[in-house]
Amino acid sequence: MRAWTGQPRYCRIALLAGAAACLPFACTSSPHRPSATLQNATLRISDHVGGTHYRTVIHNGTWYQTFGTSLLALDPTDGSTRACIDLKPPGEAGSATDLLVHDRRLYVVLRDDAVIEITPVTDGRLELTRRITADRLGIRPRRLSLVAEALYVSGPGGAVRLADLDPVFRHDGDARSVIATAGGLAVTVGRRIYLVGDNTYLGSASELLPLPPDRWHTARFAFIRRGPDGASVGLMTENLREVDARRTTIRLDQPIHRLRLFDDRLWVVGEEDIRAYLLRAGELKLAALVNIRGARDVDKIDDNHLALAGVFGRAIYRRRDDQHGPGRTLIHVHREPCALTSARFDGRHILAGGPHGTWLYSPATSTLQPGRPPIAPAAPPRRAVTLAATAAISADGASVVLSTPDGPFTYADPAQAPFHCIVAVDGRFWLGHDAGITVLGAKDPAPAQAIAHLRLDGPVRFLFPLLEGGGAAYVSELAGIGVARLSEPP
């Protein structure tokens, strides 16, 4: 069992739920409370399993791996855990979506929340030494770039130099790669490259990876240019022009998540597979192919082994035959509930699954069992009823309409939409959406008013009211499975 439980030791601990069997707002004998108290209601996770491994880095004999809101230090020989540090409880921040090692420290981005500085200690522990919040950064942090020994953090709002929090680039869009060019710093936004300072348009790319000089001939950058049906990957000159649109640019009919560079090869991490390319005779040639779906990152352990991370969990990939077994094989696979697109609940167990397997989860006992048969796709509920109102998600998922005796009320939030499911829990409406879970008042404090939120890697596709203990169980496509409960201060 691998679960977060809200206790001081968050990593991989099981919670035996039961203390919150009757919350004040749910007990029929409780007196009516003023509306103002519900403004301070809190939605918290009491149990959680699964999630996405976004980033993996091999450094000084340790395999560092992000997982949910945690950072793991693993043994690269067998994937066993050496240390774990929880950067924030699940539900209170975005997942750890980027990781970079610089000057003997680890830097982790909690999506839209903070940049965390971590120092590995001599006894193997990980020590959190600094937290720089989004408020201080002035942007919503999502990724890191290293340029001439300076760290930059970027995301919606622009890019900031981490050392002095200097806002080097401001933009309403989602800033991504920060690179050095002959004319100064440049940043990618969408499919465009802008020069920092005057926002001069320099070229077209969604992400850029600097290449070492003299090893890739005239190429100085590798690029991703994303489109609606896939992406192009290729090489660019120092002037940010494609080296050769026919010979060094490749069109891939799948989402591309990341570029990595090692073994003098360009590794392309896609949704359907991982590919390595060599530059030969002025052309990018496919040199290796790892057939694994749902990957998000890859790094080199040694000459014959790769560390993999993704929605499937994490694994080690043996590239060639050796004395331990055949090549092109996944070994030391550690799977997690993730990529969950279907779910069913019988009152005791949740059966949730997707392309990487099916899981049986018990909210009452916090137990998890893998390996169940696949389940047929199920449609999540889009309408719910309480004694005070009826709520329905609009056809486009952009809003929720509450029908009450006092008339219709609408709830809409572009940062959360689309909404995927709605259920009634203890007289209120719980919404599952791309950014997590939101609880709406059905009558008190006001119809269609948000009472509490929970941040999760979405989309949250299924919510199931619990028969015991209050609250609801959730199934999120990228965050896994868990239990959330609403409480309000005394």
How would you name the CATH homologous superfamily of the largest domain?
Answer: YVTN repeat-like/Quinoprotein amine dehydrogenase
- What is the total number of structural domains? 2
Oligomer: single chain
Write the CATH fold name of the largest domain.
Methylamine Dehydrogenase, Chain H
Major pleated sheet: 6 strands, antiparallel
CATH architecture of the largest domain: 7 Propeller
Structural class: mainly beta
Structure description:
The structure is a single chain. With 490 residues, the protein is mainly β. It has a 6-stranded antiparallel beta sheet, with no helix packed on it. A 4-stranded antiparallel beta sheet has the order 1-42-41-40, with no helix packed on it. Mean pLDDT is 90; it is low at 1-10 and 12-37.
Q: What is the topological layout?
A:
Layout: H1 35-38, E1 42-49, E2 56-59, E3 62-67, E4 70-74, E5 81-86, E6 96-102, E7 105-110, E8 114-120, E9 126-133, H2 134-137, E10 143-147, E11 150-161, E12 166-181, E13 184-189, E14 192-195, E15 201-204, E16 207-210, E17 221-227, E18 230-236, E19 249-252, E20 256-262, E21 265-270, E22 274-280, E23 283-290, E24 295-302, E25 305-310, E26 313-318, E27 329-335, E28 342-345, E29 350-354, E30 357-362, E31 367-370, E32 383-385, E33 390-393, E34 400-404, E35 407-411, E36 419-425, E37 428-433, E38 436-440, E39 450-455, E40 460-465, E41 472-476, E42 480-487
Antiparallel strand pairs: 1-42, 2-3, 3-4, 4-5, 6-7, 7-8, 8-9, 10-11, 11-12, 12-13, 13-14, 14-15, 16-17, 17-18, 18-19, 20-21, 21-22, 22-23, 24-25, 25-26, 26-27, 28-29, 29-30, 30-31, 32-33, 33-34, 34-35, 36-37, 37-38, 38-39, 40-41, 41-42
